[in-house]
Predict the structure.
Amino acid sequence: MMDWAEESMARVAATREARIGHPGPKIEGEEARRLLDQFHPDHRGVERSIAVGKNAGTEKFPLELAALLEADSLLPEAFEPAIGIETDVLIIGGGGAGVSAALALQGSGLAVHLATKLRLGDSNTVMAEGGIQAALGEGDSPRRHFADAYVGGHGDNDSGLLKVLCESGPESIGWLIRQGCLFDRNADGTFRLRPGGGTSVPRVLACRDFTGLEIMRVLKEAVRQTPVTFLEEHAAVELTDDGAGQVTGAVLWDRKGQGLVTVSARAVLMATGGSGQLRLQGFPTSNHIGATGDGLVLAYRQGCGILFPGSHQYHPSGGVFPEALAGSLVTEAIRSTGAQVVNRDGHAFVNELAYRDVLAAAILREVSEGRGVETPTGRKGVWLDTPLIERKLGAGALKKQFPGLVHRYARYGIDPAVCPLLIYPTLHYQNGGIEVDAWGRTGVAGLWAAGEVTGGLHGSNRLMGNSLLDITVFGRRAAASMAQEIPVRKAVTLAGLSRYREALKKRPGFKAAGAGGPSAPGLFPEASQMKFKLVQEQAPAPQPGPETPPAFEPPDPFARG
Amino acid sequence: MQDPTVQFKYAGELVTARPGDTLLSALWAAGKGESMQAGCGGGVCGACTVSVRFADGRPGGTDLGCMRLVEEGMEVFPCPVEPAPAKTPASGPAPETLRASYPTLDRCTQCRSCTAACPMTIPVMDSVLRMQRGEWQAVAEDFTTCIHCGLCRMVCEDKVQPHNMGLWVRRSLALAEEEIPPVAADVEAREWDWLLAGDSGERLRRAEVFRREGRVPA
């Protein structure tokens, strides 16, 4: 299967015994800073400032994101919003943050609509593998959790947000269990806690290597039992406002009907997640197909600020081979369970539990200096010595603890219990995002935000297990804040967009979307070739009708009714 | 030299792809992305369910479009599955509450269609039999890797809902777990004051000390 790498794999196997108990060198302090400056993609200067909006001329943005923020709206210039749906709270995004918020709004008496571009639950949450942090172990405390995350985030974290996150950890695990999540336990019934990169004590709870899937499938089932109205396959293309700076709803694009639906809401929660599918600097991504940064674009047009727009997490262990798994996540828990990161010659060149940004930079250095391994399709990587886990913990340990990984690679004839895996950094997480306070308030009236779309909490580098906690904590806090401070209903206009468009038009070289210029949000990965399109400029609100099966499909003999 | 290509049929239409492409990446490259429902692209959301037939006559079946590689002459049909209505879990699973929520549990004819349909190689039918016998821990283990694509439910002639029952069992087990005792209202205000003092440089130095010591140094 991987005969082209046979020679290098033999060296990895030959050095394995000698490496046990001898992890690679720690890279810290000044040495880590130099490594990051030289090799981390965030530090390469592939960024620029932008000319419009709150961060104009100050913060630097990755080129791909800058282009989106300076692009025209998808809405035709002549579009006039006509309210099709009226609700109290509109949640945009069907991942962990949005669904946590929807659940927390139960009992508030508010009508809730949840709009999602794909299906409910299709998100980065469902793809999170390694776990969720909470200070539940011996010798641990929320303060220690804070200290680990603050050092990991290079002290760039908003310490107020981070304090709330860490203090809310244990209670959040309790909430998840009450929804029906099962976390791995030790034989004595206590939680099994694993270390993660940058944790000073074991603090990561998991459901094998399907932690995000466990959380999402449970929350999805729970929220389906509430009176929330779901607008699946409805992508937000613009926020509306009252003409005086308050967000009052959104214009959604119904992907199936290919029409536009205007929603009037008293409060809007932006929970659209990240932007890995922008594939910055050509990196592969571990993100779901909807992660195109839509929420950043829409909130920015309404005057929100974006913190750390140039800070992204390149997860050190993205798949390399086979091609079908390029960029897919190989969980960090594999490394905290003992798999080392080694180069072509079987040399452990860095401690496998270094902070994610440091480890990613070390791998990029190794590859760029010629000590990596190249696949037949020209991808490069270094080895993650997974058989070491079997050697340390006994045969079958890998399958027991990482059934997802084993199943995924088995499809392609690779058994990680026997064969090391090639890894290379993959674009994994948007560290920066919309500026919010500890209640998810954006500073723009009527608009809240929670989850990966926000910035500040994780500073410029996030620790493993803090994003699943983030969505659980801040999704629910935003819900509480919306319920507490729900504004009165105001007019639905596109005044904010018009102002932004006027500013865009002053830029030299600007081309309107109607004249063939670029438009945003992107909605889909570029590689998918899928595009926003309207059947007619302003379709009426969709009427649910009987589903007719597509012509190519035979009727389902087992269908109900 | 021309790059090698593979041809397959999707919903009756011929698609040309590169060897090594998944069905999803092949459809994207061919500009037919809208024809396949997709979510994560990484084999865990269950959006892109398909049925597959092979040209060489070996048995086909159901699978995920984002994980299945293209093969010459294969025929693929989209096979989207609608979610089933959610059912309230119990505090601790019991045979009568499971049967009350899912009355088709005992209709299983042991045909194994569900096991064959599962893209995650879960022993679905065996687990349905374990549900009939009330072997809850084993059921919870079986469904650890379930992505809720719904294929096992879709192929069942007798309307058994294996994956829904699997999640019901798991949630019911979780609801019976002991509450996590509330952390003694964080009395350690002194530690927070110490950690949060000073500018960000000072806080960073203090955090480095705290993570080594686990507390404020004496």
Summary: Chain B touches chain A through 72 residues (CB under 8 Å). The two ends of chain B are 73 Å apart (CA to CA). The beta strands of chain B are 6-10, 13-17, 49-53, 61-64, 75-78.
